[in-house]
Structure formats: structure tokens, C-alpha cells
Amino acid sequence: DAVRAKTGDTEPIIPEEMAAKLLNTEGDYERGYAEGYEKGDSNMDGILTRRATTISNDRITYLGLEVFRNYDSLAIADFPNVTSTGVNVFYACYALHTVNFPSLISISSNMFAYSSLLKRLDFPSVESIGANAFMGCTRLVTLVLRKADTVCTLENVNAFTNTPIAKGTGFVYVPDNLVDQYKAATNWSTYASQIKPISELEE
Questions:
Q1: Is the pTM value of this prediction over 0.85?
Q2: Where are the alpha helices (DSSP H) in the chain?
């Protein structure tokens, strides 16, 4: 009934048609891109509401470009099996304060840019960080990179533009055995004084 009210249909809608009907409505719902999700696909993982405050999905492994851009009500994002994303995924999500990405390998360009309520981000598996990834995250005082066997690649020093880390009041915590390597690594060396061992992190 709710879907018919939104679409204007008077006839019953079968489940296989429901996603497609929602994709044709305006305002509340927009197309999201999950793994294998393309235009015309009726995968319900691709249906997202801009009014959601919490979004959780343990089925998908990829988030497409700009899928949550400007979702100004989204506060919590939980995607335990996502390993990579397109760019601008959480760009300007002004209410976003908590994310869970334990399987994420690559933080894309502008992924969290201007999501200004983020204070702490903790990534067990991240191996690379794209340009402007945290730009404008004005409350980001703690970034934890836990992967212990390699230094995470930092594509550009601008990843931390206008953050406490860039201003000298925030810190990046890395495995104790990699601290010196991080401080000497390309682009990370710019933030050498802000890099600390995880053993000093207050959990």
C-alpha cells in the first residue's frame, strides 16, 4: 500500500516489480549501487532512502560513486563486507558520526569529505587512502590504521586538508612495528609528528 501510494498505482504490485517502481519515484528514494547493481536491476540492495539515519548491509561488497553524497540525515553506516567503493561515497554527510568498515581495503577519493561530525575512524584492513579522503572533516581527531603487515599508501597529502590531523591537534595511530616506516613514507612524512603507535591509543 505504501509503495502504491508513492507511485500512484491502483493495481497490486508484485514483489519483483517493487524495486523498479520505487526507482521511478522522486524525493524519498534514489538508486544506490551495490555489487552487480546496474540500471534497470531490481536488486533491493540498490534502493536507498534519503531519510534514513542508519544504514546497514552485510550482503554487498562494493559501494558505487556518490551513493550517499549529501545524505544529510545519515548518522550511522555499517557495511561489514564492503572492500572498496567509488569516489565521494559519503561526501558532505553532515550528520554522519559512526561508520563500520572492517573489510574495507581502499578509502576512495573524497570518501568522507566534509562529513564534519566524524571524530574517530578505525580501519582494520585499509591499505590505501585516496586524495581528499577526509578533507573538511573538522572534528576528526583520531584515525586508526590497524593493518600490521604493510604501510597504508597515502595518495596525496591533501587527504587531511582542514582536519585536526593537518592542524597538529589530531593523530594517526598505526601498528607499533610500522611507526618509523609510516613517518618516512611518501606523503605520510608530512604528518610524521602526528603519527603514533597503537599502543598509545586510548580505547
A1: no
A2: 2-7, 15-23, 164-167, 179-184
- The Cα–Cα gap between 170 and 5 comes to 49
Which of these, 111, 188, 101, lies nearest to 150 by C-alpha position? 188
pLDDT along the chain (203 residues), means of 10: 48 45 37 38 50 85 86 92 93 96 98 98 98 98 97 98 98 98 98 98 87
Q: What is the DSSP string of 115-152?
A: -TT--EEEESS--EE-TTTTTT-TT--EEEE---SSPP
Block residue for cell numbers 540500471: 39
Cell numbers of 28, please? 524519498
**Length, in residues, of the chain:** 203
70 vs 55: CA distance, rounded Å = 14
